[in-house]
Specification:
By secondary structure, this protein is mostly beta strands. Helices cover 8% and strands 47% of the residues. The protein contains one helix and eleven strands, in the order E-E-E-E-E-E-E-E-E-E-E-H. The protein has a six-stranded antiparallel beta sheet with strand order 2-1-11-10-7-8. The chain has a five-stranded mixed beta sheet with strand order 4-3-5-6-9, with no helix packed on it. A hairpin with a 7-residue loop joins strand 5 and strand 6. The termini are far apart.
């Protein structure tokens, strides 16, 4: 399961499941993830989940800023186009910080053997 964990001072205060093909994020009540903060645009960003073109059953997660006033950032870098997200990425919408947690990827990482 993919989760977006809201952080305050590096402590998880809320968790939101990414359980649909797209999750809209913003201050307006019609967003799937509403953030009631004046630093957030009405329709701030969107997260989409797409099937991987090469691996059956695998998915890819993307984030796109929708022209927000205070920006969207991944690992401190501004999002300027559709950007792929990875497990444990830190995402910031305005001043609100989140962490992407992909439980399936965590289990894959723990069983991966890399030979050199």
């Amino acid at each position: 399961m993919i989760t977006l964990a809201q952080l305050v001072d590096d402590v998880v205060v809320n968790k939101f499941a990414i359980d649909k093909p797209s999750i809209s994020i913003g201050r307006h009540p019609d967003n799937a993830l509403q953030i009631n903060d004046s630093a957030i645009s009405g329709h701030h960003a969107i997260i989409t989940v797409e099937a991987n073109k090469y691996l059956d059953g695998a998915i890819e997660i993307f984030l796109e800023d929708l022209g927000s006033k205070n920006g969207t950032f991944v690992n401190g870098e501004p999002v300027t186009s559709k950007q792929q997200l990875n497990n444990n990425d830190t995402i910031r919408f305005g001043w609100n910080e989140f962490k992407l947690i992909d439980a399936d990827e965590d289990s894959l990482e723990s069983t991966t053997l890399i030979l050199q």
